[in-house]
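Hey all, sorry for the wall of text incoming. These are the two entities for the joint prediction.
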Amino acid sequence: EDKVVQSPLSLVVHEGDTVTLNCSYEVTNFRSLLWYKQEKKAPTFLFMLTSSGIEKKSGRLSSILDKKELFSILNITATQTGDSAIYLCAVVSSNTGKLIFGQGTTLQVKP
Amino acid sequence: DTGVSQNPRHKITKRGQNVTFRCDPISEHNRLYWYRQTLGQGPEFLTYFQNEAQLEKSRLLSDRFSAERPKGSFSTLEIQRTEQGDSAMYLCASSGTSGGFSYEQYFGPGTRLTVT
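and here's what came out:
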C-alpha cells in the first residue's frame, strides 16, 4: 500500500530559526511530490517536485527531492510567526493525479 | 475570484439526514478531486473526475456516498443517512492536465460537516 510519512509531527521554534521538515514515501509508481501549507483552512500549494536533486525555491522556503532514497525536505529559513501552520507532503503515484498525503508537520513559530 | 469554491462552508446536521455539498473548480481545469480530512490527519482521497467521468473511487467511499459532475463543470458530493463518523472537512481540488501529466491541485476552502 502506498504510504507517505512526515517527520517530525510537530515542531516549536523561535523566530529567526531555520527548520527542516522531512517527507519519506513508498509508492508503486511515483509521478511527483507536492508540499502544501495549511492554516486552519484549505491547503495552499507550495511546491511540486518531479526530478531528483533540483532545488525549488520561493523566498525563504526551498525544497528538494531525492528519488533514490525516496524522500524530500522542506526548508524554511529565518522563520516568522506567519510560518506557523501545518505543512503537508503528498505524492502522486498514478495517472489519475490523486494525492496521497502524509500526516503533516505542525510548525509553531514563537516570537 | 477564479479559485476553487465550495458551498456551504459549514453544515451541521442530525444523524440520519442527507447532505449535499457543491464544488466549483477553476474553470479551465478538467480534473476534480474530493478529499476528506479529519482532525490531526492529512486529507484522504475519496473520488476523482476527469471532465464528467468519475474514474476512481476510494474504498473509503461507502454506498452512502455519491458524487456527480454533470457537464464536467461543478461537482456535488452527497452523503445519505449521515453518521457521526462522517464528521470531517470535505475538500475539493482541481487541476489541469497535459499529455497525461497532472499538474498541481488547487484546493477550495472546504465544507466542514458536523453530524450530531
